[in-house]
Amino acid sequence: MEKLTGPRLFTLDEAQRMLPLVRSIVRDIIERYAAFKDRVEFYRAGQEALKQGFPPPDGWHRERVAREIDALKDDVMAVVGELTELGADLRDYEEGMVDFPARLGEDIVYLSWKLGEDKVGHWRPLDGTDGPRRALEEIHEEAGGAPF
Question: Which of 115, 77, 123, 119 is nearest to 97 (CA)?
Fold first, then answer.
């Protein structure tokens, strides 16, 4: 039996069926990432206060806050790992944008979804750029039917 290499390729139906689980994971990521960012800002505020010769904010202790940041980062990355294990890629930690590798004709592209959208309704090329997403309806019309 041959081992498959490369990314998992999704059909549009597979990506749509996976959305309830992906949506839940992405909500967790956004929540945990916000907590991580808050602690980083708190750490920076304390560092800046000390640099300016002022006392740091209440509850600020360099080593403790640094440990909290490390733990929160590990927590975020663990949840991102759950998404990665499904074969999807997180594109944005704050908007919750997710890409699903897919085949469009001979090309590999990304089906794109972000938190707040009801369904996977966009795609973008797999060219290493963060170009704008295109509506799947455009491809559907160009191809004269369902391309995925």
Answer: 115
